[in-house]
Amino acid sequence: MRLGPLIAQALEIIVALAAAPLFLGWVNQCRAWLANRSAPSILLPYHNIRKLFHKDAVIAENASALFRIAPYIVFGTMVLAAGIIPSLAGRLPLVVAADAIALVGLFATARVFLSLAAMDVGTAFGTLGARREMMVGFLAEPALLMVIFVASLISATTALPAISAHLAAERLGIDPSLAFTAVAFTLVLLAENARIPVDNPATHLELTMIHEAMLLEYSARHLALMEWASALRLFNYACIGFALFVPWGIAARDIGPLGLSLAVPVLALKLAAAGGGLAVIETVSAKLRVMRAPEFLATAFLFAVLGLLVHVLLGGA
Amino acid sequence: MTHVPFNQQLLNVCAALLLLLSFAMLSQRRIVSLVNLFAVQGVVLTAATLLIAWRTGEGHLYFSALLTLALKVAFLPWLLHRLIRRLGVYWDTEPLLNISGTMLTGILIVVFAFGLAQPITHLASTSMRNAIGIAVAVVLLAFLMMITRRKAMSQVVGFLSMENGLFFGAMSATYGMPMVVELGVALDVLVAVLVLGVFFFQIREQFDSLDLHHLERLSERQ
Amino acid sequence: MIASLPSPLTDCLALVAAWLAIGVAGLARPRSVRYAGRALFVLGALVGLGLAAAAAWALVSGVTETRVLPLGLPELPFHLRLDALSSVFLLLLGAAAAGVSLFSAGYFRDSEGVAPGLLCLQYHVFLASMGLVLLADDAYAYMVGWELMALSSYFLVTTQHRIAEIRRAGFIYLLMAHLGALAILLSFGILQGGSWQFTFDAMRAAHVSPAWATGAFLLALLGFGAKAGLVPLHVWLPEAHPAAPSPVSALLSGVMLKTAVYGMLRVTFDLLGHPLWWWGLVPLAMGLFTALYGVVFAAVQTDMKRLLAYSSIENVGLIFIGIGLGIVFFGVGMPALAALALLATLYHSLNHAAMKSLLFLGTGSVLHATGQRNLGRLGGLIHRMPWVAALTLIGALALAGLPPLNGFVSEWLLLQSFLFADEIPRAFVNLLLPLGAAVVALCAALAAYVMVKFYGVIFLGQPRESSLAHAHDCGLLERLGLGWLAAVCLTLGLAPVQVISALAPVTRQLTGSAAPQGAAWWLLAPVPGRAVSYAPLVFLLAGAAIVVLTVLLVRLFYHQRIRRTRPWDCGFGEVSPRMQDTAEGFGQPIRNIFQSFFAIERELPTPFDAAPRYRIVISDRIWRALYEPVADWVRRLADALAVLQQGRISAYLLYSFATLVILLAVVLAT
Amino acid sequence: MMELPFLLGFPAVGAITLAFWGARRHAPEINAAFSLGTFAAACALALRVIAHGPELLWREQFFIDPFNVFLVALTAFVGLTTSLFSRPYMRVEVVHQRVTLGRLRLYHSMYQLFMLTMLTALTTNNMGLLWVAMEGATLSTVLLVTLYRTPQSLEAGWKYFILCGVGIAQALFGTILLYFAAEKVLGAQGVTALLWTHLDAVKSQLEPAVLALAFVFLLVGYGTKVGLAPLHNWLPDAHAEGPTPISAVLSGLLLNVALYAVVRCKILVEGSLHSSLPSRMLMGFGLLSVVLGAFFLFRQRDIKRLFAYSSIEHMGLATFAFGLSGPVATFAALLHMTVHSLTKSAIFFTVGHAAQKAGSQLMEDIRGLITLSPTVGWGLMLGSLAILGLPPFGVFASEFLILTTAMREQPWSIPILLLALGVAFAAIFGRVQPMVFGDSEARRLPHAPALLPVFAHLAIVLVLGIYIPPYLAEWYRAAAHLIGGP
């Protein structure tokens, strides 16, 4: 295998690792601005991670090995996902490892391990968080799959790079089915990344928290990995969104220095815009009661299915 | 109207008598006279057999006439009378279907029987083909009697007169069955009545009555 | 003929016979656990391995042989046949049986209620009868094997016959099995098409009119569906599986359900030959409903074996979805896609055999160690029984359909084949089928939910009962059994390309078109010419590499100091086991979302209860809606008829009289 | 040709001997010995017929052909095993003081007499003698049904006597009509005119109208003894109230022989009618019996009544199969007669022991046989499963053939059959399971149960399910060919 793609692959992963916390910071900053608060430093997530890595790990006595392995696995899956999703370039070595469906499976793996780890210590909040996380998951996952289905039906493939390449090649027109799925995807993204209105990353209020509840027993480096992983997850979802709905600017054909050097700034732009948009949504919408989350996700599912139907109807006609 | 030979007329008279008798049995409620009627039936049957024997000159018919006389006129009635005395059952209770109703049904049955006998009658070469219909009628009437009676005893008499009907049928259709069969049938009837005798005593000692409503326990209506 | 030189068929036959022999040998010393309960079962496991090997060889060498045994009916001796289809399922049978028997050798004690020898007999007759079902090439041999399978497994299910529920479960099981068998029998009766030959060859040759063929197909679907547990014919399954001893549950769920799949494929694609495309919609619809129904019920169960039983129903649903898709594709003339769908079916059958057996055996170990089947009284066993916990985790993750394990592969294939549904040249169908994909996706996600509940509540958290402290890990033989099945799961997960190329002859036999070949030995692609791929090996290696790298970096740069304290739990004081979610609690979201599925009766505590208690009974609507009315109807009819026989002799005489008169009238009339 | 004299001689002599010695200590053994002799003679006869084909004997009054010789062998065999079973059973009854020694004598002598009538009915060539023997069978068993002299047994006996007597009277009239029709062809007063072989030879010339009527009477007559609904009402009572060995032979033998008579008549009538009227009648009766039997099964509480109704159902099935009247169906019907009589008598053996142990025939009193005495428990369980038509037992083989044939020939009948079979399965199995499984508090018996007969029967049925020996198959084929049908 030639060296170029490998380097590109490595570059993509590194960019992801580096950019993920930054993106999170950016979103928080935008939210602060929109809320007329003085924004924290955009680098705050880095500081957090660094700080956590230096602390002593405190673990419950009855925690099993699973509890300690889980952070690494979750982190690993997220990094792998970052390597597969064409954020900078398609046609990368890792791409063959998994198509879009496998990618969804990858996220599911992360979620399952996260939940298992949360149940391991056997505290009230851990199990509660795990349950809620799985609930959100089993509703979000099909919606995400439907979104991908529509894209794959349009481009006759389930390989993400191929999809985005195909979509990018298409004439720039508004495709109604894609529009529906875009909405669905946004909702899924909010839910999966524990953002308002499904969850609130900023609070530890028992009754409402989902994602945070699962991390309660973690500390130090394990917590750091978990935080980093969730930042990566947000980043990954954003990149999937880009690949599906604004696929332009990804170095589809040539993964030489030129293409990449062109792709990086484009990605930065997209991230900035997405972060802004995300912040806006989070600011204007209110946190839902946990039991309302299913309805929220059902809407997402509905949108995705509508997109599917629209596609088949118009495509069939 | 063609001329009918004398003994032929006699035979027809016998047939008519048999029919009359079974109607009489159908309406009779006194068990003693029921048995008597049965005996008379036997007499008529014997007469008919003798007539046929005389006419056809079939040797074995004389024998079966004898058999009939011995069994159905002498032995069975005697046995039944004895049982009646020993068991003290003289009256049958009100039949399930009242007399007039029974009679009406009987008439219908006779009509049906004649209709039934048509194909046979056409074929029969015997001199008394018309009697076949009567034989069937006798059988079915006996059947009806068994259905409508409530006392074991009268049911048995019905059973026996049914056998009479069969015998008469055999006579009128085919001048009787082969000897070996005749004997077998007679034997069976004999044994049957003996068994019945045993039966009556068993039933009596259990229920001290021969009323059939004691014998209605085994059913699916739990 | 073939008998002279050794042949795969002869080998398989000999091995199946060997099972029978082992079973009979069990009666020699029925009371001895070491002989009948241990040695013979190990022997049986070896036979299973042998069978798997022979079948695999037959599959690879691609032989198709037939032979006739001097048994059976005079006109219809036992015909046997070994072809690609049967050898795949024989492989499944052998491999699964090997693991289960190995486990059983360590599992069965004489506390099972029946003498070990008898158990050994029933167990091995069960295995042998399944072998006969897979080998049979005529209706009679097939039905003999089929019913024998039901019978032997019935005795196994009712091993603990002193418990009334178990007797009831056994009764329902055998009743459903028998009714199903009757349906299959009639289907064969149609298939022989007037040629009084009941050999499958004759049925292949026979020409059946479309109407009759449809009848045969529906009857077969009824019969095999009843065995496989398609909703609404599933009622026996969640009763029988928990009732049986765990190894038997493993066989029932892992292998026996697959014989129904085998039968369905055999009848539809082999004997009927040319299925009409719309037939496929029936199993497809039933499958979709079954899958959703099963997984939703699994999510709310509190008995771990019932949970697995319902999850089996779900998987059967997925399998039949594949069959339905295959029929549709084949019917509209897309053999390649039909091959893909059937491939998903076959692959999922193999997967489910491995993972569900594994999980049931796991529950068996838990049951022996704790004596508890109720999830509400388990927990924290990962500390007490690490082996079982570790091996079961593999099964659970596989069943949850997570890459890179095997469950995901078949799910992936199924979704891929759904992706082509829009090319079907039938209006509406191509519109509706993609919605099926949505249901499949939902089921897959719910399966993950169920598995997290299953594993988390049993093995993680704190023990909910003090008695669990004495739980012990399973013995060596049991570990071997579990390990073997786990290994099978991993292999199926990591080497899909090889498995698929091995399955190619089957799809070629069924649809005339080969299954998709991998682009490379490590790369899986559903159909040639599509830029789609899944490479579990790369996937796993890359993932592992990243994880290891992370671990190393962390070890390299940061200190390893760790303090152990009590759980923090957001600052609550004492953390008691009762604070954890119970099984009911974990199922609660599902219960709310899918309320319409269940017939729920609740007993909620009021705020003023001195000793507040919470009880909830979730039962199957279908049972009340479908089966109880039928039973009532039969009972009422019987009561009505009973009037006929009211004990009066005159009435009886009247019957005779009436019969006589009526018949005479009939004769006169004609 | 010495087999036949022995075949009929053994039971005849036995009946007389036991009439005097029947109460002695070794009477049961004597009984068994005579039955053994009969069985030996039957086997010799069977072998001879297989070797030399059909034979006529004693001025053509007796006739052995494949059809009846296999029933002869079956009858003799079941007679033997039943006598073996009744050894401990009746001894226990004596100990329990349900029968006096006098009645024991009656029982033994009548048992032999019953065998005699059965064998005569099977082997005779004379339709008249057939009738005589059938009536004789009723008479010899009616006093056995009332052996216990309980009110119920007397009632059962009375119904048995009257209903069968009346029925058989109809059969006599049918025979007369047959004779009447035959006379036209075979010449007046021909002693040969009632010989089946001659009738069979000229059956195509017999007058259809008469034979149609004759068949109705014969069918109603012998059908009553077969237990065809709605003429079956005597059957459950007689089975339930008599001693179990008698229930076994009634179910296992009498019904078969009666059906044999019906089929003999059907052959003649169909030959003359050239229409499928008789077949349709048989099918109608068969279906009705199957359905009614199945539904009555549902309400039973008495175990012997339960299996009596199952006999009705199975006889109905066999009759239905004869009505289908293809070579396959007839084959299946014969096979069904065989396996049913073997299985059902085996079941009655186990039922007898079970009821004695529990001291009651009510099913709710019989529990946990498998814990009390595993052999009886397993016998009952396996027997019931066999009778329910589960492979590898022979009943499945016959039902397989019957159902698949009916599926093609008479599709309309299939739903009815399925309903009935399903109901029967649920009814019988749902009651047998709790009797066999679970715990029990029943007592031990003074005499060990005789289980050899049970498992001998089940073994044979099992073998017939997976392997029908060629000569037996030949036998069935020959019989099926003989019965033929249009």
Tell me what you see in this structure.
The complex is a heterotetramer of chains A (317), B (222), C (670) and D (486). Chain B is mainly alpha-helical and 222 residues long. Helix content of chain B is 78%, strand content 0%. In chain B, helix 2 runs parallel beside helix 6. Chain B starts with 5 loop residues before the first helix and ends in a 15-residue tail after the last helix. By secondary structure, chain C is mainly α. The model of chain C has no long low-confidence stretch (mean pLDDT 87). Chain D has a domain at 276-486. Chain D has a two-stranded antiparallel ribbon with strand order 1-2. In chain D, a hairpin with a 4-residue loop joins strand 1 (55-57) and strand 2 (62-64). In chain D, helix 11 (277-297) runs antiparallel to helix 12. The mean pLDDT of chain D is 88. The chains are: A mainly alpha (317), B mainly alpha (222), C mainly alpha (670), D mainly alpha (486). Chains in contact: A-C, B-C, B-D, C-D. At the A-C interface, strand 1, helix 3, helix 4, helix 5 and helix 11 of A face helix 16, helix 17, helix 20, strand 3 and helix 21 of C. Strand 1 (57-60) of chain A pairs parallel with strand 3 (562-565) of chain C, so a sheet runs across the interface.
Overall body shape of chain D: globular
Name the beta content range of chain D.
under 5%
Q: C-alpha Rg of chain D, in Å?
A: 21 Å
* Largest sheet geometry of chain A: none
User: What integer is the average pLDDT of chain D?
Assistant: 88
Show unreliable segments of chain A: none
**What number of structural domains do the residues of chain A give?**
1
How many beta strands in the DSSP annotation of chain D? 2
Order of helices and strands of chain A: HHEHHHHHHHHH
Low-confidence stretches of chain D: none
